[in-house]
Amino acid sequence: MHVLEVKNLSFTYRGEPKKALDNVSLNLPYGKVMILAGPSGCGKTTLLRAITGLIPKFYEGEYKGEVLIDGKNVLSITQRDLVQSIGYVFQNPENQLVSYIVEREVAFGLENMGFDKDYIINKTENILKELGIYELRNRPLRTLSDGQKQLVAIAGILVMEPKLLILDEPTSTLDPAAAKKVASTVDQIIRNKGISAIIVEHRIDIFSDFADFMAVMEAGKITDFGDIKEVLERYSGDDLRVPAFIDVQKKAYGRVIARKFEDYLSLLNASSKRGKP
Amino acid sequence: MIRLEDVYYTYGTGYAVEGISLEINEGQLVAFVGHNGSGKTTIAKLMAGIIKPVKGSVFIDEMDTKNTKHSNIVRKVGMVFQNPDYQLFESTVLEEVMFALKNMGYEKEKAKEMAIKSLEMFGLSGYAQRPPLSLSGGEKKRLTFAIVYAWDPKYIIFDEPTVGQDRKNLQNLSVMINELIKSGKSVIITSHDMEFLWQFNPLTYVIEKGKVVWSGYMKELFSQTDFSMYNLTEPQLSAISRKLGLKQPALTAEELSEVIKGVGSI
């Protein structure tokens, strides 16, 4: 059983000559994390819009194929059920933050879903602590840095425990240390709660240790899909921001010897002890 | 030259920038690095004259930003914001690029010609008639580069330019930065993306809580034994170079792979 099934999906925006999605098919099993990668303008955002049902509900065009969430066609799911099934964290947190104070922002979704006050307070406190931003709870959002705002946006979605979490470049505004921390924290939370996730990222290294699958898109098509380590090794294109140590290995040895940076450094260490750098 | 003299700035509680003094010369590539909220963007805005110091002064070619009209500052300093949505408002991509040029007094036809050239440079010619806000995140970012490139200021500030950019766009950005430096412009980059900055070995200011805590070339920064105290992520090429015992760290994957090939496989 899959949390997400995309079957032969094609979409052309009204007035546009080319298909934005061209016969896209992919499945994501429950509890798994997938990175969706591809160059700017390849159709990643369009695919996310289709997965969330925004396409074709709010974007006109020619739509073929189907998207199933938890076994149901996304177009037949009520808006309320959809909100509980899919959580979407935007690339730019400004697009989704609506409250004045951090705590109220994180509680906003639960309040709208009609939970009782104690439950909301408890859940909100927990998620703020889990993401390490509890001390920000009483701060006005406008006083936060972009990175802090992104964490609040993530908290506001995770607190609703959706079945499928969609993160559109969630760490692009964060510094690497903060990005890694967010990645590992989000990973821990979603694994514990059994949430599945699709992560759109250019900086693949941030999530490559956590993700299970990777899909590569190009000009509206899925050009590769599978185990993330295998996809990264197969990848020979020029569009993705592959980690520097993978690049070095491909150029120096013609293949990837170590898939984790730490492993590669250990290999270099061991070989230099044998007298060869 | 851009000169900061004991500059302070506050958003209301505490100082976001505290007592910074530095000079940026023509033809220099300067990077401001540090964590989210360290004050990098505030420094960039001060240098672009968007905000004025509460104490101290910012001089752009001897013009004190506190008593210079913003229209005179923008002729010299162009800033590309981290979030492209903050600076896009025209109805088409072409008009967006032409907007600043027309404000600077260029005739419509000349402005159009300059805008088209800049859009070509950034691979956006096919989008000229599209509304800017219909572009993807990465495309919008490229558009903001094209806008500033078109008006050709002497000092160009990029606030987190690598955010949301794919590899090809980053390669284009690298080419653009190198060309700008060669042509005598100053390029100022605020970023936490050490992997991207590393190739340039820029003059680097490490910012923490609104203060400069280290300055020098980036190679020197990561060759120090105590660089970890600044909580910056070391570029992978720097770490690999050190493991290999290279006296001069490699700045690109090509350079490093050649060194590895030269000494045999592991």
State the separation between the terminal residues of chain B, measured CA to CA.
48 Å
Envelope shape of chain B:
globular
Task: List segments of chain B where confidence is low: pLDDT < 50 over at least 5 consecutive residues.
Answer: none
Rg on CA atoms of chain A, Å: 20 Å
String of helices and strands of chain B: EEEHEEHEHHHEHEHEEHHH
**Structural class by helix and strand composition of chain B:** alpha/beta
| Counted beta strands of chain A | 10
Q: How many β-strands of chain B, per DSSP?
A: 10
CATH architectural designation of the largest domain in chain A: 3-Layer(aba) Sandwich
What is the CATH fold-level name of the largest domain in chain B? Rossmann fold
Strand content of chain A: 15-25%
Task: Provide an overview of this structure.
The complex is a heterodimer of chains A (277) and B (266). By secondary structure, chain A is α/β, with parallel strands linked by helices. Chain A has eleven helices and ten strands. Chain A has two domains: 2-242, P-loop containing nucleotide triphosphate hydrolases (Rossmann fold, 3-Layer(aba) Sandwich); 243-277, no CATH class. The longest helix of chain A has 18 residues, at 176-193. The N and C termini of chain A lie far apart (48 Å). By secondary structure, chain B is an alpha/beta fold. Chain B is built from ten helices and ten strands. The longest helix of chain B is centred in the middle third of the chain and has 16 residues, at 167-182. Chain B is globular, with a radius of gyration of 19 Å. Chains A and B meet through helix 6, helix 7, helix 10 and helix 11 of A and helix 5, helix 6, helix 9 and helix 10 of B.
Question: Which key phrases capture this entry?
Answer:
heterodimer, A: 277 residues, alpha/beta, Rossmann fold, 2 domains, six-stranded mixed sheet, four-stranded antiparallel sheet, 11 helices, globular, B: 266 residues, 10 helices
